[in-house]
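Per reviewer request, we include the raw input and output of the structure prediction for the construct analysed in the revised manuscript.
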Amino acid sequence: MLVSQQSYPIKEWIGDGAQRIRRLRGRNALLEHVRRMSCQTLRFGPTAGSVSGTAIYQTPEGVDSMPSGSLDSECPFCNLKKSPVTSSGLVGLHGFGLAKVGSLLGGLGGRLGLPAVNSCPGYDAIMASRRFCSSALLVSAILLRGVPLAAQLPSNATLQGTYYFRYLGVNSSPADKARSALGTLSFDGNGKVQVTGQQINNISPGSEQPVNVSTTISYSVLSSGIFSMANPFATAGTTLFGGVGTGAVVASSADSAFCDLFVAIPASTGASTASLSGTYQFASLEFLNGDFASSRNTFFSLTPDGKGALGNVTVKGTAVNLNHQATTQTSTGATYSVSANGSGTITFPAPSGVATANQLLTGTKTLYVSADGNLIVGGSATGYDMFLGIKALSGSNPTPLSGIYFTGILENDAATNGVGVYASDGSANEVSNTLELAHERANNDGFPGYDLTYSDGGFGFKADGTVSFSKSQYAAGAGGNLAIGSGNSDNYQLALYVKGTPLNGTGVFLNPRGVVNAANNVPFTAQVSPGELITMNGTGLYSGQLLVANSLPFPNILGGVKATVSWVVNGATSSADMPLYYVSATAIAAIVPYGVPTDGSYLTFQVNNNGSTSNSVVSFSGITQPGVFTLPPGGVGSGAILHADFSVVSTANPAKIGETVQIFLTGLGPVNPAVAAGAAGPTNPLSVVTNNVDVAVDGIAAKVLYQGLAPQLAGLYQLNVTIPAGVTTGSDVTLEIVTTDADNIQATIPIGK
């Protein structure tokens, strides 16, 4: 197990790939996941091919495929191989002649790792958090600057009128206490929302503190659909972060003492019992009487008849006090009601002959129904539970989810040595049924938040839109706009995926979901760090063909195109030009200046194409955002890694236990001595990162001998890492990079016998 060596305490399971995938998709081990991916054929877009033979051509809303050789023209190293290497006498670092790397990487051509074109209070003391403040409203107000009205991008005006909400959370400070709330939200479309509802806070198991909620608070919707709102159910200073998607809002309180899940849907005007008919997939999570030792999960289907009857419902699930065993109970004569505004009740009679403490789902609960009838949400006004239901798929669809989704997760991992309570907000790019690129702003019980980024083997849904793993299970909804998740075995969770609304614009248009790490392409909700090489996707960004910088330092203006980043500190706005690696009509590769904030506040990006200015796009800032370049590019598959003789680590030429290899990546943050963004990494002295980096190979901690900028190259970091004993040989294994505020599990490395 890898333990991050940080200046503040981090739970020891950070860096343990087995734990991570167990939670995310219910696999028993990350290795199992990697083996399955390495031996199967993945399909990226319309062309089928193996991972080693197809390059991911990344766009914000999905992928296509293209021959890897076509990337040569924009390889970051090809045009640098003629740059002078004056440090031939540099003493090798831990046996490596690092000065040789510049020319040798150039020889790799386009194969090396850039994506194709188009392609609350006490927490601030230990780690900067994402803060909701007046600057958020200022940023929101200027997002549409330069965008034609026809673009119809999300904004504060996206949320107007009455919404229903359900909230379930855990206050981890000083000890875990459950709380829940439900009611209505009245959005004014201009950054203010009236919250009215009921809340209960658990004092001790079975002892509740009821609270009437009536307050007006601030909210913000960015052009990407990212949502933030002061959390009215938590202590002052806590903020809900998430997204506004197709038919719902999903959020969680990142970087706080609260692990929670918040879901809101628009109120209806003409609903009735007939609004619910047909088959629904249903999931629920409950902390019975506020007791986490009485956690229970359900996951099953139900069939409302459109007249208020559910019939005899077969409830399937697990409970801690039932020893986590899969259990089936029958709720006879279940009923529901729906009023014209979409609110109502749902009643599950107690199963016959089952003791109260062993009942998975019983009682009358408040029910909210979306206008289109595709989503139901609710819970008990006097309990610590939440349920979600989605209209089931009709017919067979092998790929029910596609594109970008906002995600929210609340979990209690009750396994022996489990991680306990956890929550996250984030996003996922469902590339195919067998590939997902995802980001979560992870919020572990009682510990600082961090960015978790990863690739996964996808859901692999069955024909009915459901899938089950050892620790979790999921269902995709009709139309592909929603998915829900529940736990399995000793993992208790509730998850919601909400598809992002389509984004479009004319003229010089920077896609609000298109600013991504140039190496791993994880979705847009991930933070951006100083010195990171990013790709900014859009349309009309450049008027000519692909243009690549051919000298160092990288220029701030390339082909008449300029990209800027701006930020607000104490009410004052600062900005800086970004060094450009390449420009094209649909993508720009740029390096984030080292002077930007790293405290989780907003960074605003904008492009100027020969006098025509794009819309502004906002991302979160952070200290680091590690992304390993891969071969072929795109962030999935074998990392861009060299042996000591500078040959490429590959299946045909794998790394060996005890060998030290060179890993090339971006997003490791500030360096010392300082180097201007876009300039070549120095050789004497070498420029090393100021925050420690830990590496795990196949889940085993590896010794890091060097962590810093790659000498003679721009926008590129390098790690020299020794392959540890105990890793699996004869296959590709996972490569995990853990930093001060981020964890990336994405690239792999072939290990020979």
